[in-house]
Amino acid sequence: RACVVHLRSLDPSFDNQRLENQVQMVFSQFLSCDLNSAGAGTLPRVEDMHAVKLEGRYVVQVDEITNIAQPTKARYKRADASISRCLKLSLSDGVRRVIALEYRPIAALHVLAPAGMKVAITDAFVRGGTLFLVPENL
């Protein structure tokens, strides 16, 4: 709702746009917003979960990605998806921050991805409050 109010303030003709255009404008605004300041939160208390599947789909913002399989100085250098890479992601839904680990190589992720990128996580396994991601989860 706040997004639509904001778009109306930017473009007084927003309400006169075709529905498809309005949807596209809202989606673009969502992709560029910072969920840390605008997100309402959708994740459950992942930090309290252990050895369970986080059922459903959750859209979160990627705030940071590091390759923890590398020495400290090389953690932010691009590395292609392989078994020798393990990415650690700091994710936020605007209310909660969770850590996710790349359990199997995910070609769509890399350390040079822009901060603020949004991803939809589906049915991820949780162990010790950490999400373990495989390609099927994104």
Could you give a short description of this structure?
By secondary structure, this protein is of the alpha+beta class.
Describe the structure in your own words.
This protein is an alpha+beta fold and 138 residues long. It contains 3 helices and 5 strands, in the order αααβββββ. It has a 5-stranded mixed beta barrel. A hairpin with a 4-residue loop joins strand 2 and strand 3 (97-102). The longest helix is centred in the first third of the chain and has 14 residues, at 19-32. The protein is globular, with a radius of gyration of 17 Å.
Write the layout of secondary structure elements.
Elements: H1 2-10, H2 19-32, H3 35-38, E1 52-67, E2 87-92, E3 97-102, E4 117-127, E5 130-133
Largest sheet: 5 strands, mixed, barrel
Shape: globular
- Poorly predicted runs of 5 or more residues: none
Average pLDDT value?
93
Number of strands: 5
Provide the succession of SSEs. HHHEEEEE
Helix content: 10-25%
What is the structural class? alpha+beta
The fraction of residues assigned to DSSP E strands is: 25-35%
Strand arrangement in the largest pleated sheet: 1-2-3-5-4
Rounded to an integer, what's the Rg over CA atoms? 17 Å
- Count of runs of 4 or more consecutive helical residues: 3
Terminal CA distance: 26 Å
Which labels suit this protein?
138 residues; alpha+beta; five-stranded mixed beta barrel
